[in-house]
Amino acid sequence: MSVREHFQDDLEGLKELIKDLAKDVRQRLDEAVYTLYHKDVEGAQKIIDDDKELDQKELIINEKAILLITKEQPFATDLRRLIIALKISSDLERMADHAVNIAKSTLRLGEAHSLTIHPNIDKMCAKAIDMVTLAIQAFEQEDITLAKKLADLDDEIDAMHSQVIRDMLQHTESNPEVIQHIMQMAFSSRYIERFADHITNIGENVFYLVKGETYDLNK
After folding, report:
1. How far from the centroid of its chain's Cα atoms is residue 163's Cα?
2. Which of 48, 77, 99, 167 could form a Cys-Cys staple with 28, CB 3.0–4.6 A?
3. For 174-219, how does the pLDDT look when each residue is reduced to its tens digit (9 = 90+)?
4. What is the C-alpha separation between 171 and 188, in angstroms, rounded?
């Protein structure tokens, strides 16, 4: 096998690690929102405890990417592929942190509350999970058309988040005694909105990889 073929194999291996981390992040968000709706404090604690596994996966990706940059001294598109791998792994790790934050909201709410969780949070979660799948497809196929689709989906999540905040503010006026519960729900909505922002970062990174220039998906 030639040096070039070895390098391509290493890049493919790195891509597989990123896809695996993205799969875990999707699952973490889904599980975290489930715990919120089902008052599953035990499940929420497990999400928090298991977060270090994802941190370790990000570390492995970073170490492999840096090793390849140092050893192979790539340039142009190959160098961008490795830099993008570092950026995407960082975004995925931070997305996992937002899932952990939702799990922490589940713990703060506890099992005894009677608050109805806003239906938009579940819808936002489903859309964010779809966004992760689309972003990783764009990354894997180096497809900016797929990456650009993330902007519209992010706008939809932003709109749902704004609706949650408006509804919560209205609910607070008539139910001041449950302000802490309402705050946790608003925070959870915000965590998913931020989760989606990181996905658009991945789309922008794909654009940079393909075009070699920056692109703002949020403009």
Report:
1. 21
2. 99
3. 777 788 888 999 999 999 999 999 999 999 999 999 988 888 877 6
4. 16
